[in-house]
Amino acid sequence: MSQDFEVRPARVADAPAISEIYCDTLGPGYTSPAIVAEELTSAPRAAYFVAEAEGTVEGAANAVWVPRQEMLEIGNVGFGYVQEELLRLGGGTQRFGLLENVGVRPGHRLHGMGSALVEARLRWLEDQGVGFAYSFAWKTPAGSPAEPLLLAAGFRQIRELADFYLEDGLVNGYACPYHGTECHCSAVLLARPLPRA
Fold first, then answer.
1. Rounded-to-integer distance, Cα 99 and Cα 79, Å
2. Strands 95-104 and 156-161
3. Which range is most confident: 97-106, 142-151, 167-176?
4. Residue pair 169/183 in contact by the 8 Å Cβ criterion
5. Which of 58, 100, 127, 183 has CB atoms 3.0–4.6 Å from 176's, for a disulfide?
6. Alpha-carbon torsion 93, 65, 120, 107, what sign?
7. What single DSSP character describes residue 159?
C-alpha cells in the first residue's frame, strides 16, 4: 500500500490539531493547545510528531527521554511503582525513552499512520542516545489500539497495571471517556532495548 501521508516533527502551529486529536482519542480536557505549544517550545527532552495528509494533521504522537538519575529518584518521573522494574530491565542505560501518546483521526486509522508515528518516535529516541524505551498502552473496555503498534515495533509486554489512570482522574480531574473521573482502565507496560539491530 502506498503511503498517502507524511510524518514530520510538529511545529507550534500544529498545537491546536494535536490537542484536538489527543482530546478526541483520550478524552475531553486531556490537554490543550497552550500545553502542547509550551511543550513544543520549552521541553528539550520531548518531541512531538504529526502525520499530515493533504495538508491536514490527521495523527499525532509524542515521546520524552529521561536521564537515569531521574529514574533513580522514584516518584520524580511519575509511575514510581514501576520505575525499579524499568531500571532493572534497562540495565546500565543512561537514558530511558517514554513513548507517550499516539492518536489518529478515525478516517485515517488502519492505514499505517500509527505505525509510522511509532517509528518516528523510536528514531528520535535513538538519535538522542536512548538505550531503553517503554510505553504504557491504554487498555479500555474497547481494547488497546496502541498495544499492537508497539508489539509490531519490537516491544514486549511486561505486565498489565490495573486502575492505572484512577489517581490521575481523582487528583487531576482527568475524565476518561469510558468511566469519567473514576477511571478503571488499565495500562499495559511494554518495553524494548534501543538501538534496534
1. 14
2. unpaired
3. 97-106
4. yes
5. 183
6. positive
7. E
Give the C-alpha separation, 125 to 45, whole Å.
10
Question: Which position has the grid cell 498489565?
Answer: 160
pLDDT band at 179 (very low <50, low <70, confident <90, very high): confident
Look up cell 486529536; give the residue.
Answer: 21
C-alpha cell read off for 13: 502551529
Confidence of residue 80 (pLDDT cuts 50, 70, 90): low
Residue 185 near residue 139 (C-beta atoms within 8 A): yes
Which amino acid is located at 185 in the chain?
C
Query: pTM for the whole thing?
Result: 0.91
Encode 154-192: b = buried (16+ Cβ within 10 Å), e = exposed.
ebeeeeebeebbbeebeeeebbbbebeeebebbbbbbbb
Give dist(CA 35, CA 101) in Å, integer. Answer: 14
Helix (H) and strand (E) counts in the chain: 7, 7
179: amino acid identity, one letter: H
Set out the domains of the chain in order of their start, with CATH numbers: 6-193 (3.40.630.30)
Contacts of residue 77, defined as CB under 8 A and 6 or more positions apart, other chains included, come to: 66, 70, 71, 83
